[in-house]
Amino acid sequence: MNSYQCLACNSNQNHYLFTKNSRFDEPFSLHRCTKCGSEYISPLPDENRLKAYYEKSYFTTRTDRGYDNYFSNEIKTEIERVFTMNLNDLGFFNDSSLRENELQSLDIGCAAGYFVNYMKTLGWSAYGIDVSEICTDFASNRLQLNVVHGDYLEHKYTNKFNLVTMWATIEHLPRPDLFIQKIHEDLDNNGIVYISTCRCDSLFKKVAGKRWRYYNVPEHIHYFTLKGLTTLLEDNGFTVTTSFSYGSGFGKPGSRVRLLADYIAKRCNTGDMLVIGAQKRDEKATL
């Protein structure tokens, strides 16, 4: 046991799982919170060192940690397919409050800006922010989007947002609790946050064990359970309204094994990708 306090549920009770090396051959230990089941790596990488893992090759060279040319039309199409599926399952298209005029959205960890662009086509005033300069340059210059390069925790917004999203981003953050707190401040009254992340209490993760496809260290720092992420949100002024999981990682993409495993993952809510929708609580109404 180490002295780390779980950022999801604030418990300091944890146990060691195993050690895995980064692509730079640095050892990182995996630990699990005994209260909520969420996991994290130790030691936590410092911010300057972490930036080295998101160099250009992370987005342009296929590895078990990166993308095969993130800026290609094929990757763009696949990413759009996934977040459109997620939006549909979250009830986004049926929420009348999200079809009003002059709505504003912010995508944290927006990468090349594909979701920002999507929201723009829906008529939203869409913003994005990311720590990867190569990505924000692409979003700003190639796609002409309102995207900035920087650290969300340090960036100040004068406007309030109706929707904030973090698609496969929260697992990369050294301090996800601070991000949730700032999102709460940056949302309008009753604003909504959507979060997707790898789920470490999934059936398929348990079967895969140490070979789980999302054990990418130290790019992935935190691995949440549904209980852990729900606790983090509800302890910081949100009410979780919906959640679901999907994806298995079993078999080759497009194979019968993968299709069957993915069907089971979605149908039985046992997938290793977790998606949560939460609404900012009206604190005045609770007084």
Would you identify the CATH architecture? 3-Layer(aba) Sandwich
**Global Rg:** 18 Å
What percent of residues are in strands? Answer: 25-35%
State the helix count. 10
The CATH H-level superfamily is Vaccinia Virus protein VP39
Strand order of the largest sheet: 6-5-4-7-8-11-10
What is the C-level CATH assignment? Alpha Beta
Alpha-beta classification: alpha/beta
Could you tell me the number of beta strands?
A: 11
N-C termini distance: 40 Å
What would you call the shape?
Answer: globular
H-E string: EEEHHHEHEHEEHEHEHEHEH
What is the count of distinct domains? Answer: 1
Quaternary status: single chain
The CATH topology is Rossmann fold
The average pLDDT score comes to 90
Stretches with pLDDT under 50, minimum 5 residues = none
Helix content: 25-40%
Describe the structure.
Helix content is 31%, strand content 25%. With 287 residues, it is an alpha/beta fold. It has a single domain, classed as Vaccinia Virus protein VP39 (Rossmann fold, 3-Layer(aba) Sandwich), CATH 3.40.50.150. A seven-stranded mixed sheet has the order 6-5-4-7-8-11-10, sandwiched between helices. It has a four-stranded antiparallel sheet with strand order 1-2-3-9, with no helix packed on it. The model has no long low-confidence stretch (mean pLDDT 90).
